[in-house]
Amino acid sequence: MLLSGFLLGACSRHEPEAEPVRPVRIAILGQEPLEAGAEFPGEVRPRYESRLGFRVAGKITTREVEVGSAVRRGQVLMRLDPQDLRLAASQAQASLRAAETNRELAEADYARYKELRGQNFVSQSVLDTKRSAMRAARAEADAARAAFRGQANQAGYASLVSDVDGVVTGIDAEAGQVVAAGTPVVRVARLDALDVVIGIPEDRVDGLRMDSQVAVRLWADPDETIRGRVREVSPAADPATRTYTVRVAIPPQPDVRLGMTATVRVASNAEAGLRAPLSSLHYEAGSAGVWLVERGAVRRVPVQVLGQAGNDVLLGTGVQAGQAVVTAGVNLLRQGQKVRVLQADVARRGDTEAAAVAAPASAPGAAR
Asked: Is this structure's pTM higher than 0.70?
């Protein structure tokens, strides 16, 4: 009898355990369609920035501007000690006077010998010598005059003036420093042409070249959008950041100042899609998909990802507006699994579709 009891117990059928109903959070597609794009931080910089320097060597005596000073065309920025330049100009002037005196003497000699030649008192070779001496004296006078003018200009170069209207962005030399000719001492930027400089990854370069219109927003005034134009795309990536430098031209405005932080939004050429949280994506064998909640169960469908905007993604083919996608715990689900939509999602959205999705999973039979 004992053996028969064991045999009967072994042959009895065990009831399978009820499949657990997993709670999930959902989002209803079709609430906020947008266009694919990305945002990149940047900085407002001048399009033209001149590194000015003296055209002559000398010792800086005074500095007339500070960093950030607004300057006008022709305004003096720095001055050199003009004493040596004045002495050189005086020497060139004295040389000019001597050359002019020699020229006058040579011309007078040539005139006298020309009269003597007319009276046949001197030979033609003597007259030719006097003519050559006169021409040489004239040439020496012309050279001395050019040297004097050049030295006079050198004396005028002792004052460094701005050639544009702009603002001083940097000072590379101070009073008392001796600089060589051409050494940059002041940087002046023009304010009539501004750029926003950003760095973009390599997968965005080709699309940016095709669509040159972008939207720029300043951190100081995020509510105002400025229309920008892609003016220059670097042909090579930066060796440190591995991004491509892009310069976006913006129109000059009184509220836009150099060094401001800006955000450039680049819209792709993709068609408009449906926004979904980034956490709703589920990758399997390299394919992106989402879990749809239908009649209290989940079904995985592959989707096309068009782009990303912040914490959301843009979905193309594979889903439709009004469908409910799982936004949390997507890696723990399996095909056909029973789920229970959190009542907080239904109450917060106030959506009849969300309530219909949640109803079958929360029924007493499904819960058991």
From this structure: no
Residue 91 shares a structural domain with residue 126: yes
- Chain-centroid distance of CA 300 in Å reads 42
3-state secondary structure of 147: helix
Distances 169 to 73, 176, 185, 224, 248 between C-alpha atoms, Å = 16, 21, 11, 26, 20
| Beta partners for residue 338, in sequence order | 297
Nearest to 185 by CA among 150, 153, 161, 154: 161
Phi and psi (nearest 5°) for 192? -85, -5
Query: pLDDT by residue (tens digit) across 84-105?
Result: 888 888 999 999 999 999 999 9
- Three-state secondary structure readout of 177-194: CEECCCCEEEEEEECCCE
Residue where the block lists tokens 């939207």: 215
- The overall longest dimension of the chain from CA atoms, in Å, is 172
User: Do 195 and 211 share a domain, yes or no?
Assistant: yes
Do residues 206 and 328 share a domain? no
